[in-house]
Specification:
The complex is a heterodimer of chains A (about 230) and B (about 290).
Chain A lengths: L1 E10 L2 E11 L4 E5 L6 H8 L7 E6 L2 E2 L7 H6 L2 E5 L10 H10 L8 H11 L15 H13 L5 E5 L7 H16 L3 E5 L3 H5 L4 E6 L2 E5 L2 H4 L5
Parallel strand pairs in A: 3-8, 3-9, 6-7, 7-8
Antiparallel strand pairs in A: 1-2, 1-4, 4-5, 9-10
Helix pairs in contact in A: 3-4, 3-5, 4-5, 5-6
Chain B lengths: L1 H13 L1 H36 L3 E6 L5 H12 L4 E7 L1 H11 L4 H5 L9 E6 L6 H12 L4 E5 L2 H43 L1 H9 L4 H36 L13 H29 L1
Antiparallel strand pairs in B: 1-3, 1-4, 2-3
Helix pairs in contact in B: 1-2, 1-9, 2-7, 2-9, 7-10, 9-10
Classes of the chains: A alpha/beta (about 230), B alpha+beta (about 290).
């Protein structure tokens, strides 16, 4: 599903990733952990085609990121659901409109949009707040809307960059539970976090990064044969 | 298509003040261009009126047979620069002098012999009413044996030439300067809109909207603003024109307004800079998100 082979990524300020190799299987849940600047966000950006590797190969959902043309990036993004710490909702649109927006701008059939939006809003438990604007929602609820928007295109992979970073403990539990449910439904999830309590609660595979290198991969034992 | 229009119009509805500001800015920039065009058109019109009076007069030796004059007239009419040749007989010349030169009326009244020569008045075609062509025609006229003298007001025509050149040059320079300022202002205005919607653009990219799809509403918005700005400029220009024309005691009472072709050109220009400005701003921004 996702494969990094000897990936290096240099920024003008220095190296962000040094010889990273990893493989994430279909339906897997993977935590990316490490301090700020360890390379978590760089890995997620490479996965969504927002960055290109300096060397090495990044393959995701059948796409080779180094070869992505301007027309292929949108095609890759439509197979991904992406959520961020800061939610990235449009403040002048309701929850429902924010989700519908993702379908509209990718050319979905207009007549199918309302039912698809309602389905994901129900899935994240916010059907009752469809008409609320982001500022009328709590942080946890806003992240749920963002998750609903990420799910509405039925992605094979969800990439979450510190999705609970801005949330209090209770909201964190709720959002994390929702992400686990999404994964339980068969969607592959890669979640960057520095919340170690969250990581310890589960037995999901954890990849720890330090200064651009993988220093620990709990999945390595079982998946050693798949790593090249 | 409906989505495109909705998103483009949404920006007007969501940021009415900014939209009004951009339209006004575009309007005033184009108004400056329009005012200038108005001045240029009227200057050209005025020059044209003066130019129509450019003529060459060939004075004939007395006693030239009418057949010779008639033949020469035909000849001269065939010159490529010449529009019309008019024969003015000696009697006619005297009659005109009596009517036009009131100061000398007494002197002309008591004449027993007409001192005035007959002449050929040659009017030049449009486009040939400048010093070089006029003097060329004058030289050729001097070649006829029965032509005594040729006059065409050399200095006056040379001044007209200079005026025409200066007007053209100044017109081009100032016109281009105004147009450049308009383009820059419009680019900046649209860039503000794009920056204001940077978040939206980044989300569109995030969920997999194609670049073409992202550009669409901005381009439409830019074109609409250009169109409305062009309309504002048109109204302002027309208002100014009416204001000046209304001052009948001023020399501006006879001014003309831009013709329909120019108006359409102005509107098309507005739409083009609106489109161009947004294309540049969105393009630059798409690379940065």
């Amino acid at each position: 599903m996702i494969r990094f082979a000897h990936v290096f990524k240099d920024y003008p300020k220095g190296a962000a990733l040094k010889n990273v190799s990893l493989h994430v299987a279909k339906g897997e849940f993977v935590f990316l952990t490490g301090h700020s600047g360890a390379g978590k966000s760089t890995i997620l950006k490479l996965m969504q085609g927002a960055l290109q590797p300096t060397s090495g190969e990044v393959r995701i959902s059948g796409f080779n990121v180094a070869d992505l043309g301007a027309t292929e990036i949108p095609r890759l993004r439509r197979r991904l659901g992406i959520v961020f710490q800061d939610f990235r909702l449009l403040d002048d649109r309701t929850a429902e409109e924010n989700i519908a927006f993702a379908l509209e701008v990718t050319g979905a059939r207009a007549d199918g949009i309302p039912s698809r939006v309602m389905r994901v809003l129900t899935q994240v438990g916010l059907a009752a707040k469809a008409h609320a604007y982001p500022q009328e929602l709590s942080g946890g609820e806003q992240q749920r809307v963002a998750l609903a928007r990420a799910l509405v295109n039925d992605p094979a992979i969800v990439l979450a960059d510190e999705p609970t970073g801005n949330l209090d403990e209770r909201a964190t539990r709720g959002v994390f539970q929702l992400i686990r449910e999404i994964n339980a439904g068969g969607t592959c999830v890669v979640m960057a976090t520095h919340d170690l309590d969250l990581v310890k609660q589960t037995t999901y595979r954890t990849i720890e990064l330090r200064e651009g290198s993988v220093v620990f991969d709990s999945g390595l034992d079982e998946t050693a044969g798949e790593l090249t | 298509m409906r989505l495109l229009l909705r998103e483009a119009l949404l920006s007007f509805r969501r940021a009415p003040l900014l939209s009004a500001l951009s339209i006004t800015t575009i309007g005033f920039s184009l108004y400056a261009v329009g005012l200038f065009a108005l001045v240029a058109v009227n200057l050209r019109e005025a020059l044209h009126t003066v130019e129509q009076r450019v003529e060459v007069v060939a004075y004939l030796l007395s006693g030239t047979p009418p057949e010779t004059v008639a033949l020469a007239s035909q000849d001269i009419t065939a010159f490529p620069e010449v529009q019309r040749v008019t024969f003015v007989s000696e009697d006619e010349a005297l009659k005109r002098a009596r009517a036009e030169l009131l100061e000398f009326r007494d002197a002309y009244r008591d004449l027993s012999v007409n001192p005035l020569p007959a002449s050929l008045e040659i009017q030049m075609k449009e486009g040939f009413r400048d010093g070089a062509h006029v003097s060329a025609v004058a030289e050729r006229l001097k070649g006829y044996g029965f032509v005594d003298d040729v006059r065409y007001g050399r200095e006056w025509i040379e001044k007209l030439d200079r005026l025409r050149n200066i007007a053209g040059l100044v017109g081009l320079t100032i016109g281009l300067a105004f147009a450049a300022v308009a383009v820059v202002i419009i680019g900046v205005t649209i860039r503000i809109t794009v920056l204001q919607r940077a978040r939206e653009i980044s989300i569109m990219r995030l969920v997999g909207a194609t670049n073409g799809f992202i550009r669409g509403p901005f381009l439409l918005e830019g074109a609409l603003k250009g169109l409305l700005g062009g309309g504002v400029a048109l109204l302002l220009s027309y208002g100014t024109y009416l204001l000046f024309r209304g001052q009948s005691e001023l020399a501006t009472s006879g001014i003309v307004f831009l013709d329909p072709q120019h108006l359409v050109l102005g509107i098309v220009f507005g739409v083009a800079i609106g489109l161009g400005g947004s294309l540049v701003s969105v393009g630059r921004h798409l690379r940065n998100v």
